[in-house]
Amino acid sequence: MKRITFIMTALLFVHFGFNACAQNAKPSPAQTATGKIGSTAVTVNYGSPSVKGRKIWGELVPYGKVWRAGANDATTVDFDSDVKIEGQSLPKGKYAFFAIPDENEWTLIFNKNPKQWGAYSYKQEEDVLRVKVKPSKSASFTEALLYEVSANGVNLKWENLQVAFSVK
Fold it and tell me: How many independent structural domains does the chain possess?
């Protein structure tokens, strides 16, 4: 009888332990994308939300409004040397990265205040650079928001959309 009681108690601890861990798991885990573009090291830190059956563009992420380009803290982009983004100069440093999505054109924003929660304290006067880019349909569905650093720039992919910006 003691053995059965012990086994049942142990199973209850295991069950409740797994449930407690599952409740603490972040629905939008922190991710990092890194790479070299020429001799410049690039690091993107972001929260990676999932689609979970939702309509993303124009609904969850509204058109025409500043978006943190991820989840939780503002997404940050760090360049270890001066770069040109879409042909425009940006000094080396760490920036909060925001976007204003629209169906046919996005405004990408590099803001000098990288330590922000979301876009709640975003101030346009702290923008260092704004560039316009065109979104495109991605080759495949991407469930969790993904940033990739390639030899030519940075690419954001989520749902059925991708947005790239060149870095030189």
Answer: 1
In sequence order, the 6+-apart residues with CB closer than 8 A to the CB of 31 are 45, 46, 47, 48, 145, 146, 147
- The SS3 of residue 9 is helix
Classify residue 2: in a domain, yes or no: no
| C-alpha separations of 125 from 105, 113, 129, 146 in Å | 22, 11, 10, 28
Q: What is the pLDDT of residue 15?
A: 45
- Contact (CB, 8 A) for 110 and 77: yes
CA distance 44 to 26: 19
Question: Which tens digit of pLDDT belongs to each residue from 8-35?
Answer: 444 434 444 444 444 446 689 999 999 9
Whether residue 119 lies inside any domain: the answer is: yes
For residue 65, the enclosing domain spans 28-166
Residue 13 lies in a domain: no
| DSSP annotation string for 92-112 | SEEEEEEEE--SS-EEEEEES
Inside any domain, residue 3: no
pLDDT in tens, 129-153: 999 999 999 999 999 999 999 999 9
Q: Please write the tens of the pLDDT for every residue from 105-114.
A: 999 999 999 9
